[in-house]
Amino acid sequence: MNVTKFFDQADSIRVGIVESNHLLPLQLGDSFSTLAELLAAENPIAAIQGLTTDDPLPINDSIRWLPPIDNQEVWAAGVTYKRSQTARMEESEAAASCYDRVYQADRPELFFKATPHRVSGHLQPLRIRRDATWNVPEPEITLVLSPQLRIVGLTVGNDMSSRDIEGENPLYLPQAKCYDQCAGLGPWITLYDTLPAMDELHVDLKINRNDQLVFDQQTSGAEMARSFQDLVGWLGRDNSLPAGGFLMTGTGIVPSKDFTLLPGDVVHISIAGIGTLSNPIVQA
Fold first, then answer.
1. Residue 208, C-beta contacts closer than 8 angstroms, at least 6 positions apart
2. How does pLDDT run across 47-93, given as a tens digit for each residue?
3. Rounded CA separation 35/32 (Å)
4. Residues contacting residue 68 through CB under 8 Å, at least 6 positions apart
5. By CB distance 3.0 to 4.6 Å, which of 109, 157, 163, 254 could disulfide with 78?
6. What confidence score (pLDDT) does residue 88 get?
7. Domain spanning 73-283, CATH architecture
8. What is the Cα–Cα distance from 204 to 94, expressed in whole angstroms?
């Protein structure tokens, strides 16, 4: 089941189900008034199935998608793929040993990524920093967590990163990662009773510039060195998410030093079984 948020014709924020080529707006009421409350239900799929829907809307260019987030936090994991470990060591000689050690350590790298106002949805702009020269998207399988830290679904994530800032000094990681329009989520959340195997989650990154394909690379969850449950377990240590949250699980696709995003680029991230998140790139 795919559930998302969007603006209706009256500019009201709505929650809806995506089925085939249609969007079915949900009628929320006293029991559930927000998407976050539905995700916090004991069984989100059953909770949604118990709601009535308005007339279906055809999915076309007139749909104004919103990121499928209310007031949840967004966290991220780093160096969970071998390719990410190698890339981080390449970008920073000073931090090479840190990234090498964290890849093999029991404790993962976890960091706070974004508050809801920093998150963009499908077809909404993502930003590259004006004080950075090497900016890349990071396509990530993203876990959707209930307040009890149960994984209730998956979505597509884009953990935008300014690699030159991070490479200059590891202590600059928050500035390289967390800023306005720094995170993409969407186009919807795919809810599961049982999560698919990690090797079934194929990730595809394509970047278009002036209508030309300038980057095209793939990976899969099978390349991850850590399990989803391991990452969530560490996130929940002495840490609570009262409204639930999102956890980006790291990237296995890192463009080389000769590639940086430019204003006007369009980033497309697809994850098999979930969907495609597309975002144009802007700069202040």
1. 214, 265, 266, 268
2. 999 999 999 999 999 999 999 999 999 999 998 886 555 555 555 66
3. 8
4. 3, 4, 5, 35, 121, 155, 185, 186, 187, 188, 189
5. 109
6. 56
7. Alpha-Beta Complex (3.90)
8. 31
Return d(Cα 220, Cα 154) in angstroms, integer. 14
pTM of the model: 0.94
Least confident interval from 121-125, 167-171, 273-277: 167-171
- Listed in order, strand segments (DSSP E) in the chain are 2-7, 13-19, 22-25, 57-58, 64-66, 73-78, 109-114, 119-120, 126-128, 135-136, 139-145, 151-159, 161-162, 183-191, 202-209, 212-220, 245-248, 266-271, 275-283
Task: List, for residues 219-244, the tens digit of each pLDDT value.
Answer: 999 999 999 999 999 999 999 999 99
Q: How far apart are the C-alpha atoms of 153 and 146, rounded to whole Å?
A: 9
The neighbour count for residue 234, using CB atoms within 10 Å, is 17
The span from the CA of 41 to the CA of 47, in Å, is 7
